[in-house]
């Protein structure tokens, strides 16, 4: 086949060509081609010229294959009879939340590595991405609130043994951000994969610890007690540290900007918690929650718990 027939708008790249044989044909799909033959390994095509093998080209996966679309769309399985129309929305929203939790954890781990490498510019950029994801998470509650109380109650009885506080990824997120509560581990079987993940997060430093070590690497006199604190405990206020933070705001604009992005993160998580509480109150009122939780009462207790108390406390000292 002539090159112009295969690529009418551009010339093919020379990727995959061998010296002496001219440009190879680029496999752009799984469609049959007279010069391509399936190779011995899955996902590989042999480029033939006559009876000679001249190159091995990988067959790129299609969009549905790469994203596992068939598997993904098979995961929404309502339990109600018929099923109830709104149960699909409930499942999709919460599965999407779990995907966002996974991405935020991925970004937080990367952010800590950036701070350890003293890459402040990239760290601020990564924080901006996390903040943008948080905004999307808050906005998703608007969609969930289109479900009326009666619509939710039409399938709620199927959720009696399940609750959002069973989300181990959200517990990982809390641990990574410094909201550590060892007794949370008791909800997960000892020796299980989830329990081991949470134990690793509990024993590891938090974003706050990575931030403090980043400050110290940039000459900020971070108190030794803060740098060597027990990372299995929640972050506690430190009057000595606040003196250094105030000086950062007055004399180190780049580090001050990083501080402000952390405040944005703290505020964003509090906003998500608040909106979650109001959504639950709007939907089930003061009923007990599913999975043994106390519902809105339990969620209310999680409000106004700042991740980084010293960054809030210095507002009155600037």
Overall residue-averaged pLDDT value: 83
Helices and strands, in order, run as HEEEHHHHHHHHHHHHH
Please write the CATH class name of the largest domain: Mainly Alpha
Number of structural domains = 2
Shape: globular
Number of strands: 3
Largest beta-sheet characterization: 3 strands, antiparallel
User: Could you tell me how far the N terminus lies from the C terminus, measured between alpha carbons in angstroms?
Assistant: 73 Å
Q: What features would you describe in this structure?
A:
- With 318 residues, the chain is mostly helical.
- It has 2 domains: 1-74, no CATH class; 92-316, Methane Monooxygenase Hydroxylase, Chain G, domain 1 (Up-down Bundle).
- Helix content is 53%, strand content 5%.
- It is built from 14 helices and 3 strands.
- It has helices spanning 3-6, 63-67, 69-73, 87-116, 120-144, 149-156, 168-177, 193-203, 207-217, 224-227, 239-251, 253-284, 296-300, 309-313, and strands spanning 36-38, 44-49, 52-58.
- The chain has a 3-stranded antiparallel sheet, with no helix packed on it.
- Helix 4 (87-116) runs antiparallel to helix 5 (120-144), helix 7 packs parallel to helix 8 (193-203) and helix 11 crosses helix 12.
What is this structure's SSE topology?
Elements: H1 3-6, E1 36-38, E2 44-49, E3 52-58, H2 63-67, H3 69-73, H4 87-116, H5 120-144, H6 149-156, H7 168-177, H8 193-203, H9 207-217, H10 224-227, H11 239-251, H12 253-284, H13 296-300, H14 309-313
Antiparallel strand pairs: 1-2, 2-3
